[in-house]
Amino acid sequence: MTTNRKAAIIGGGVIGGGWAARFLLSGWDVAVYDPDPEAPRKVGEVLANARAALPALADVPMPAEGRLTFADSVHDAVEGAEYIQESVSERLDLKHRVYAQIQQSAPDALLGSSTSGFKPSELQQNAANPAAIFVAHPFNPVYLLPLAEVVPSPKNDPEAIEKAKEILREIGMFPLHVRKEIDAHIADRFLEAVWREALWLVKDGIATTEEIDEAIRMGFGLRWGQMGLFETYRVAGGEAGMKHFMAQFGPCLQWPWTKLTDVPEFNDELVDLIAGQSDAQSGHHSIRELERIRDRNLIGFLRVLKERNWGAGKVLLDHDERRRMGNIAHPTGSGAPMVLSHQQVLPGWIDYNGHMTESRYLFASSETCDAFLRHIGAGMDYVAGGHSYYTAESHILHAGEAKLGDRLTGSVQVLGADEKRLHLFIRIEREGMLVASVEQMLLHVDMKAGKSCPAASEVLARLMPIAEAHQALPRPETAGRHVGQRKS
Ligand SMILES: NC(=O)C1=CN([C@@H]2O[C@H](COP(=O)(O)OP(=O)(O)OC[C@H]3O[C@@H](n4cnc5c(N)ncnc54)[C@H](O)[C@@H]3O)[C@@H](O)[C@H]2O)C=CC1
Ligand SMILES: C[N+](C)(C)CC(=O)CC(=O)[O-]
Fold this sequence. Notes:
The chain has helices at residues 14-25, 39-53, 74-78, 92-105, 120-123, 158-170, 187-203, 209-227, 230-236, 241-249, 268-282, 287-307, 312-327, 358-375, 380-384, 457-470, and strands at residues 6-10, 29-33, 68-70, 83-86, 110-113, 133-138, 147-151, 174-177, 338-344, 387-398, 407-417, 421-430, 433-446, 451-452. By secondary structure, it is of the alpha/beta class. The protein is globular. The structure holds 1,4-dihydronicotinamide adenine dinucleotide and the ligand C[N+](C)(C)CC(=O)CC(=O)[O-]. The site of 1,4-dihydronicotinamide adenine dinucleotide has 24 residues, from α1, α4 and β6. NAD(+) binds at residues 11-16.
């Protein structure tokens, strides 16, 4: 039996719940410590949302979910934990007390803090082992948004910080290394400025909370999610780019467009004004409903970005690739069809008939075929050199239904191969039962010339022994079958 890796989450509120969900759905065991008796319910609700959301971003199987426990003490939570994430309320004295408890039991474990604004050197004050404590600032919902700002102080060991970043990547996050510690890191400096201006606009009666949200979500908010600020403004500079943009809009920095660092007085009147408008705007939805709406919208955005290998979508693709590599044992070409892919039927793969939609059978087969091509040395580096295999013909035979959550394996049997042609029989199976087979003829192509040509000798040197070994395998009964009605 293999044991999962363990993460401890100290503080199980909005953010701790999100961390717990991300680690659990990445296959880690998680122990949560939070003295609030409501914490298990709250974490359970965040986890339910995460289970409905995170798998929809994946195109490779999710690992089996880890085990969630609620510990009775900090000591029990952190015992044996490889990674600890503190997510208690944003109070420095509280965080210091919690670190003292954690480091009594686990002085050397990596200890990330979710703090929105404290600098790591502030968090490290009077700690038993300051070098273990760093900032890992996430964004809500932690289980969907990849960013974690990782902020060390000079007291941290760079190697330990690299290890923490690697763990964050393993759970699908994008660790942004903040090189100089600063109050509120990078993103919250920025968000705080926007927040301050928005409070002014409401307080001064210029705009309601709803009007401000429309101004964001109908316009620049959509741009930010895919290009950020500087790339967006570079494009807005027209053909002359950023220099022209700055020449045109630089002077307005001197104009009274912004109240800059002036903060409206934070009093009950302001809180009631903002909260009242926010209730009027969104009070007809519960918070959990709003979370689910937010999550579905984020999944849509993220999937589009993933299709384009852009921004946060690239993080998702890289994460899939890492998992795909981890899933594949090194197959040999001898004796049996080669198992080359493991996939899981994900929510977006289900059609109106309640089972896996037909295009996904071809997708599952094509992932298997790509794995075979990588295996024989015709992967992306080979393609970059101007040669590739193109599919000339495919025949899918549906033999069973695949349902949501099913784990599928894809295997390849080489039916024939020569210098230019590759004839494959791909089986997609669930627990050893055939769900579909796909027979394909591929042609080796010189991509520039747009013509078939012999494959490189090193590719043939890997392919031909497999093809020869597979000649000894029984030919699949349905190989060569065509689509046609049976004569009665
Ligand atoms: N809510 C947000 O949008 C974000 C918050 N953060 C940061 O995450 C941290 C947590 O914030 P939230 O989850 O929003 O707050 P929260 O109020 O939802 O959760 C804080 C939790 O800490 C628990 N707690 C209090 N004392 C504790 C102790 N001694 N030991 C263990 N648990 C204890 C509370 O019972 C509560 O469940 C803060 O540092 C905050 O700045 C970071 C990113 C976004
Ligand atoms: C409002 N906030 C400062 C707690 C926000 C964050 O820290 C990050 C986020 O998720 O917006």
